[in-house]
Amino acid sequence: MINIKQKESILNNLKQKASNESLGQTNDQVKGFDFKKRFNPISISDLLKMEIPSTDWLVERLVPKEGITIIAGPPGNFKTWIMFNMAINISRGEKLFDNFKTQKTNILLIDEENHLRLIKQRILMLGGDPDLNIQLISKKNFIITDKNILGKMINFCKKEKIGLVIIDSLVRIHSNDENSAREMNVVFRHLGQFCKHGITVVISHHEKKEGMGKMKASSRLRGSTDILASCDSLISVKAKENNSIIEIKQPKSREEESINPFELRVCKDYDLVDFQYIGQKEKTKTNDEIIMEILKNNPDGLLKKDIEEIADNEYKVSKYQVRESLKRLEETGEINCKKGRGTSRIFSFIEEDNQSNLEF
Fold it and tell me: Are β-strands 63-64 and 57-59 bridged in parallel, bridged antiparallel, or unpaired?
């Protein structure tokens, strides 16, 4: 006959075993796990004594070495053209747009969007030649979450001394739910394996439609907010004036302050295409940025009617535009909303460190 204490002991052992198995571990594996060896924690004292080099850029102020850069924009807005042009300039060690210094390196282009015929046509139109140190893979169904393929890809890159992998596009290299922070975190953990081996990643991604009101470039990024949280640099590309001008913005730069927006002129001469640097634009605030600024200046939060009043009086933003921005910012997790008195709601700014929390 089993007494109560024995029952409790058996139950606790079963719970512990179930907990370990849910983490993919057995009791023997837990006992043999060396935490210090696996994570190697260091003290602040040791950190402050370390000689850590400053940020190294593959493309000055735009693409950090051994980091992940996303080039985003709506379809048909020159994302692929910009990436191909970047690849040609980096392969030669020439300035991008005759303005941003690059470091010469070998490149692997993984294009899951375009056939070889179109890639060849665009490379030639951008002035490419046979001497470019670029290797490419076109429509070979590369899946980043396949660990076996990823490991072999990294070994290939190391053997060929490839310092940059360019991928077109994010949606084509995984089958995870784009709107799930947890699933996109898995995708970017796999992309990060390139960076751990000293390889820089540049990858294209799509943006959402703007709708009626102006949106921040970072808010236009399609899918989970963890996509933005996972990259080191975000470059937003937008064509305007009948595709004769391209506006470039950098909504995020983890290493340094983002550069001011600048414009490129699309120059077409017979079968050649070039991008001419026009210059920086003075930063203009979107409606979303205005709402964020209002909430930052009022850390205790504001009622919607108070936000509408400030936005109208100080920024000439309409009530409709305020409502649209509040809806977008709440959906992307950049602001918080809680119930006030009666039917009223109080909106407040969320600090950046809390915006990228995963959904568990």
Answer: antiparallel
Domain count, the chain: 3
Residue pLDDT, tens place only, 143-173: 999 999 999 999 999 999 999 999 999 999 9
Residues 214 and 273 in one domain: yes
Together in a domain, 117 and 206 = yes
Q: Where are the beta strands (DSSP E) in the chain?
A: 57-59, 63-64, 68-73, 106-111, 134-138, 162-168, 200-206, 233-240, 245-253, 262-269, 272-280, 302-303, 335-339, 345-349
> Which residue's structure tokens are 């009043």?
309
- Give residues with Cβ within 8 angstroms of 145, minimum separation 6: 174, 175, 176, 186, 187, 190
| Residue-averaged pLDDT of the chain | 87
- Do 78 and 162 lie in a common domain? yes
- Out of 280, 311, 344, a domain closes at 280
For residue 47, pLDDT beyond 60: yes
